[in-house]
Design brief:
This protein is mainly α and 143 residues long. It contains seven helices and no strands.
């Protein structure tokens, strides 16, 4: 085991209490980059709060059908204060996005038209939101 590998394992153990078997099996040439990204981006305080990042992780885990990621990100989200309702909503949003994505890809919707319409709809919704009373939270008005 090289010095760099030993140092990474020591750092992982100090953060999590152990070096999980799967991480021990990661090729040494991949470990440094993986751990640096996990430590300095996924687990660190960045522009996105950790709870938000873990809710995104739950959504991605659902779409990719990864039970390992679903478990990790669910427990991490709970550790960062996510409620069961927030976890369920993240999963439902992922399902909704996957539903729409599957449909527009399957019918091979024209991308340029989709882009134009999407930008027009967002501009319209922003205008509607700006006209709402300032003492109310901004929402897209229902028609």
């Amino acid at each position: 085991m090289t010095t760099n590998l030993k140092a990474i394992h020591k750092e992982v153990e100090s953060m999590f209490g152990q070096v999980p078997t799967w991480l021990q099996e990661l090729p040494e040439s991949a470990l440094s980059g993986f751990w640096t990204s996990m430590r300095d981006f996924q687990l660190a305080e960045t522009a996105l709060p950790n709870k938000t990042k873990e809710l995104i992780g739950i959504a991605v885990a659902g779409v990719t059908r990864c039970r390992y990621c679903a478990l990790f990100h669910t427990e991490a989200a709970r550790m960062f204060g996510a409620t069961d309702a927030e976890i369920a909503e993240a999963a439902a949003i992922a399902g909704h996005a996957m539903y729409a994505s599957t449909f527009v890809n399957a019918i091979q919707a024209d991308y340029d038209e989709f882009r134009r319409q999407t930008l027009d709809m967002v501009a319209y919704a922003r205008k509607q939101m700006a006209q709402q009373k300032p003492d109310r939270p901004a929402t897209v008005p229902a028609h």
